[in-house]
Amino acid sequence: MTTAPERALSAPTRDEIFDAHRGGKLSTGLTAHLRDQRDLAIAYSPGVAEVSRAIAADAAVARTHTWADRLVAVVSDGTAVLGLGDIGPRAALPVMEGKSALFKTFGGLDSIPLVLDTTDVDEIVETLVRLRPSFGAVNLEDVSAPRCFELEARLIEALDCPVMHDDQHGTAIVLFAALRGACEVTGRDLASLRFVVSGAGAAGIACSRILLAAGARDVVLLDSRGVVDATRGGEKAALAAITNPRGVIGGIAEAMAGADVFVGLSGALLPEELLASMNPGGMVFALSNPDPEVHPDVAGRYAPIVATGRSDFPNQINNVLAFPGVFRGALDAGARRITEAMKLAAADAIFAVARDDLALDRIVPGPFDPRVAPAVAAAVAEVADRG
After folding, report:
1. Is 150 left (phi over 0), alpha (psi -120 to 50) or beta?
2. Model confidence over 24-60: pLDDT tens digits?
3. Which domain holds residue 32?
4. What does the alpha-carbon distance between residue 222 and residue 229 come to, in Å, rounded to a whole number?
C-alpha cells in the first residue's frame, strides 16, 4: 500500500500559531450523554454510586468502568524541552498538550498533561505514586539527563503500570526502524556498520543501547568532551564498557574517520569535511531540532541516506511513529511494563509498514500513515502477551 505523498508545507505565521494555541489545545469530551434528568441520574447521582460501590468491593472494576485504565499521564518538569532547554513547567505545558493531542489522534488514547513544579526525583515519584489511581500509564517527557534515567527506573519499580521516557525510547525505536529500512534499501548489514552517535544525553544513550541490542558491534558514543570513556560515570560509564571496540580516542573528527553511520543527537554542528572522511555509501541521521547538525543538502553530497527530525525533508525520524502504538499495545495487553522486547517489536512493525515502498528517501513511513499505530500496537501487545 502506498500512501499519498504529504503536501509541501508553507511555514505557519506567528499569528496562526498563537491563534491555534489560544485557550490550549485540549478539552474534555463525554462518552455518556447528558440530555435529560434520566441521563443525569445515570451518569451522576444516584446512579454513579452503584459503580463506586462495585469498585470499592472489587478494584478491578475500575479497569472497565472508569477511564483511568486507558488514560496516559504525560509528565514533565520542563527541564529539557525540545531545543529550548530548561524553560520550566508552565512554558512546557503547550508541548505536553501537543503530546496529548498526538496520543488521541494517532493512538486513540486519552491523556492528560501534568507539569510538575519540582525537579526533585523523590518528589516526582511520590507525586505520581499518589496520583496512580487516576491514570493507566506514564509518558515521561522533556526531563533532563541524567535525572531522567533515575526517574524512569524509580517509576518503573514504584508503579504497577507502563512507564516510558519517550525522549529516550521513542527516538531509539524510530531510529532503529529507519536503520532497518536504510540497510534493506542499500543492501547493507547492520552488524557490519560503524556507528558514530554524537550526543550522550537521554536520546543518545537510548539509541546506542538499542543499536547494541539489535546486533551492532561498533558504536562510538561522544559527548561534549569527546569519545565517552569510563571516567564519565553513570550511564555513560556503563556504555563506555560495551562500546568503542576499536579504542577510538579523541573527538568527532577521530570518530568520523571511516564511519558508516552518523547519528546526531547533540545539536553540535558537523563540519562538511568530516562527512568526506566517512566510508562511501554512508548514512547520516542529523536529528537535532530545529536545526540539524548538518544541512540535508550538504549531507546528501556524501551519503545516499540522509534523515532528520524535521517534517520538511524526507526521512523524518518522528517519535509519533512509535509512542502512540507502544502505549496502546501495552494498555491493550494489560502490561505492567514496557520491555526491551516490546520496543524492538515496535521498531520491527514500523519497518514492516515501510518495507513495500522503501526508497532512499523513504526509509520510514510518513507520520500520517494510518497503518503505523495499529501495527505497532498489535506487535507490542503480542510480545506483552507472550511475556
Report:
1. alpha
2. 998 888 888 899 999 999 999 999 999 999 999 999 9
3. 28-166
4. 9
Using the 3D structure, point to which of 135, 166, 197 is the last residue of a domain.
166
Residue 257 and residue 150 share a domain: no
Report the CATH number at residue 32: 3.40.50.10380
The catalytically annotated residue of 25, 44, 236, 302 is: 44
Whether 44 sits among the annotated catalytic residues: the reply is yes
Give the cell for residue 36: 435529560
Q: From start to end of 213-293, where are the E strands?
A: 218-223, 226-227, 261-264, 283-286
pLDDT of 5 above 70 = no
pTM: 0.92
Here the CATH number for the domain that contains residue 355 is 3.40.50.720
CA 288 to chain centre: 14
Place of cell 497503518: 371
CA distance 375 to 377: 5
**Pair 184, 159 in one domain:** no
Question: Among 99, 236, 302, 343, which one carries the catalytic annotation?
Answer: 99
Helix (H, G, I), strand (E, B) or coil at 276: coil
Distance CA 237, CA 247 (A): 14
- Spatial CA neighbour of 163 closest among 60, 74, 69: 74
99 noted as active-site residue: yes
Q: CA of 344: how far to CAs of 19, 172, 215, 351, 357, in Å? A: 39, 9, 12, 11, 21
Please state the rounded mean pLDDT for residues 92-114: 96
